[in-house]
Amino acid sequence: MLRLAVPNKGALTEAAQTILKEAGYRARKDSKELVVVDPENSCELFFLRPKDIAVYVGEGTLDAGITGRDMLHDSGAEVEEIIPLGFGRSTFRFAANPGEFTSVSDLKGRRVATSYAGLLESYLAEQGVDARVIKLDGAVETAIRLGVADAVADVVETGTTLRNIGLEVFGEPITHSEAVLIKGAGAEETQGLRQLVRRLQGVLTARDYVMMDYDIRAERIEEAIALTPGMEGPTVSPLHREGWVAVRAMVRRKGHQQVMDQLWELGARAILVTEIFACRI
Ligand SMILES: Nc1ncnc2c1ncn2[C@@H]1O[C@H](COP(=O)(O)OP(=O)(O)OP(=O)(O)O)[C@@H](O)[C@H]1O
Ligand SMILES: O=P(O)(O)OC[C@H]1O[C@H](OP(=O)(O)OP(=O)(O)O)[C@H](O)[C@@H]1O
Ligand SMILES: [Mg+2]
Distances from the Cα of 35 to the Cαs of 32, 40, 276, in angstroms? Predict the structure, then answer.
């Protein structure tokens, strides 16, 4: 039985559920369901607070989990990243009233509010800056206006929250984050976990690629293959038309319209693009 931790609340919840569903695992019926047993996949899904997930996985009570990279660093748990999952992208940054600070070294002796104290403390120590860390649970941006802190260190995605309260980022980003699949540091990858990883990689590839089919004159095939090299090499089949071949290859979704334009210029016709629903590469 694979025991997997999934965020039950917050920014990662919906996307984590979607990717697991696309990978063939059972979804929960409503947000009050805390454990879902999925006998068909020999899996139990535990819906937990995203910040607690690294702790459970690090303690070895759960085999794997989906959490944010920033959260896993913050927890200090003995876990390792298996694969990045491509959603929940954010940066973790300092912010303050405009013009007040320009770099982390300006924070010496000042108060910095955050809900990621572990991450912030280790960054400040690394930078050799002695500042006071004020631990808050959330909505930390307000701490400056309320006089509890001189600066904040928080998750920034679009920057809207900061703008709304009149704060500006300063200094280098502390870390870049996205959702990741984690397991206990040095823990053995069970058959169930290997299957989960393969399925998730399949979903990620299916999201990143499209399938492209086209017909082209045989003498232009090498130029066409240079544009659509595929994974192992494209499938080239004879066409029931003298001097023409049919080509099928996986192409990166991003930029596939440009590839179609270039193929058209080479004389390719009947260029079709279809979604890949699932795959194992
Ligand atoms: N607006 C956002 N856009 C993208 N990712 C985000 C955003 N806010 C948070 N994240 C990321 O999502 C993960 C979980 O953060 P989230 O804010 O959901 O948890 P939390 O603060 O513990 O929960 P809650 O906000 O419910 O108290 C983190 O890795 C964080 O980087
Ligand atoms: O740059 P933005 O797109 O505005 O996103 C960043 C905001 O999103 C998160 O807040 P969340 O909703 O999780 O509330 P919290 O602060 O209580 O955790 C984060 O803590 C920031 O406040
Ligand atoms: Mg939050």
Answer: 9, 15, 31
Query: The tokens of 115 are what?
Result: 């809900």
pLDDT exceeds 90 at position 262: yes
Q: How many domains does the chain contain in total?
A: 3
| 65 and 16 within one domain | yes
Structural domain that includes position 65: 2-87+178-189
Distance CA 235, CA 78 (A): 45
Are 101 and 83 contained in the same domain? Answer: no
Q: Which pLDDT score, from 0 to 100, does residue 281 have? A: 86
What is the reported pTM? 0.92
Question: Which residue puts its alpha carbon closest to atom 5 of ligand 1?
Answer: 88
Average pLDDT, rounded, for the chain: 97
CB distance 161 to ligand 2 below 6 Å: yes
177 lines ligand 1 (CB under 6 A): yes
Residue 250 maps to which CATH number? Answer: 3.30.70.120
Tokens 């965020």 correspond to what residue? Answer: 7
Cα 10 to ligand 3 centroid, rounded to whole Å:
6
50 and 185 fall within a common domain:
yes
155 lines ligand 2 (CB under 6 A): yes
Cα 145 from Cα 106, distance rounded (Å)? 19
Nearest C-alpha to atom 31 of ligand 1 is from which residue?
90
Q: Which ligand is nearest to the CA of 51?
A: 1
What CATH number corresponds to the domain at position 126?
Answer: 3.40.190.10
